[in-house]
Automatic annotation (TrEMBL):
Biological function: Epoxide hydrolase involved in the biosynthesis of cucurbitacin and mogroside tetracyclic triterpene natural products (e.g. siamenoside I and mogrosides IV, V and VI). Cucurbitacins have cytotoxic properties and exhibit deterrent taste as a defense barrier against herbivores. Mogrosides are nonsugar highly oxygenated compounds used as high-intensity zero-calorie sweeteners; they also possess pharmacological properties such as regulating immunity, lowering blood sugar and lipid levels, protecting the liver, and acting as antioxidants and antitumor agents.
Annotated ranges, domain AB hydrolase-1: 28-301
Source species of the chain: Arabidopsis arenosa (Sand rock-cress)
Annotated pathway: Secondary metabolite biosynthesis; terpenoid biosynthesis
Family: Belongs to the AB hydrolase superfamily. Epoxide hydrolase family.
Protein known as: soluble epoxide hydrolase
The keyword Hydrolase appears for this protein: yes
Keywords in alphabetical order: Hydrolase
PANTHER family: EPOXIDE HYDROLASE (PTHR43329)
EC number(s) per entry: 3.3.2.10
Length: 323
């Protein structure tokens, strides 16, 4: 990464977010939203690539992560708070409309941004997590109970439980257990087992990431802890209540969805990939392009960085030409 990457603190929605940015400030703004358990650093390849093609790239540490403010209660991590954080960033940069890309939880924030404020999004790229219509009769926590207590999302619900389980390992080990996942199921641990204990580390680190890069994440989480990131999962039922007014709404923003064919949860007849390739997804996101990357796993913008960067750039350039 070149020295022209800048980090600064931005006040938005009553909190301070740490933001990495690079590129011509007069260029079109591209906002990159990371997922769990990451920081702005997960977009390092795209930051360099997109800024070199004339875009002004901004990637925050989301609330609760890295060097951004972390609030103790899960009630401060609803999609209302998270989308408001993003709107505040757009306002800070004086941008009426921006391109937005989100991965994992960042993708969920991006989908909600497109629902709440489509006027602020010129085009949206979602990585790994598609838009799922809200089920009016089933809260997320009740849905996840069908997988049993071993499901990672269920284990993340009780305050302190996952934090205590993670604390039995050093942060570098925790990062490796998540970032190097190659499983395609829904991450369910056996009975009486914590998911962090169940996840395995491969014998060799894959060539798309280095030990030093994983250490960058580990050092951030060593300082920040995991409560902020876990609070996103603990606010899922609150999000379900907040999203009620948008029941049956469609995503009208031009959208590109990018995912690996071997992402978490893709496996089986009710897997995510079956939904992505079905008619429901296209009906709720009518202006949609879908790209499935062969042999791609969950942390796709790092593992397949060149391909993802090119897919994002082609989408941005196409929309820029249609203005």
């Amino acid at each position: 990464m070149t020295s022209s990457l800048r980090e600064k603190k931005v006040k938005t929605n009553g909190i301070w977010l740490n933001v990495a940015e690079k590129g011509d400030k007069e260029g079109p703004l591209v906002l990159l939203l990371h997922g769990f358990p990451e920081t702005w650093y997960s977009w390092r390849h795209q930051i360099d690539f997109l800024s070199s093609h004339g875009y002004h790239v901004v990637a925050p540490d989301l609330r609760g992560y890295g060097d951004s403010d972390s609030l103790p209660s899960h009630e401060s991590y609803t999609v209302s708070h998270l989308v408001a954080d993003v709107i505040g960033l757009l306002d800070h940069y004086g941008t009426a409309q921006a391109f937005v890309a989100g991965h994992d939880w960042g993708a969920i924030i991006g989908w909600c941004l497109c629902l709440f404020r489509p006027d602020r999004v010129k085009g949206y790229i979602s990585l790994s997590v598609p838009y799922f219509p809200r089920d009016p009769k089933l809260k997320p926590s009740d849905f996840f109970k069908s997988f049993g207590d071993g499901l990672y999302i269920s284990q993340f619900q009780k305050p302190g439980r996952a934090e205590a389980a993670f604390a039995k390992h050093d942060c570098l080990t925790v990062m490796k257990k998540f970032l190097l996942i190659t499983r395609t199921d829904y991450l369910v641990a056996p009975p009486d087992t914590e998911i962090i204990d169940h996840l395995e580390i491969p014998s060799t680190i894959p060539d798309w990431i280095t030990e030093e890069e994983i250490q960058v994440y580990a050092e951030k989480f060593q300082r920040s802890g995991f409560t902020g990131p876990l609070n996103y999962y603990r606010a899922m039922d609150l999000n379900w209540e907040i999203l009620a007014p948008w029941q049956d709404s469609k995503i009208v923003v031009p959208t590109k969805f990018i995912a690996g064919d071997k992402d978490i949860g893709n496996e089986g007849p009710n897997g995510t990939m079956e939904y992505v390739k079905g008619e429901m997804f296209k009906s709720v996101v009518p202006n949609l392009e879908i790209v499935v990357i062969e042999d791609g796993h969950h942390f796709i913008q790092q593992e397949k960085s060149e391909q993802v960067s090119q897919e994002i750039l082609s989408f941005l350039n196409k929309l820029s030409k249609t203005e």
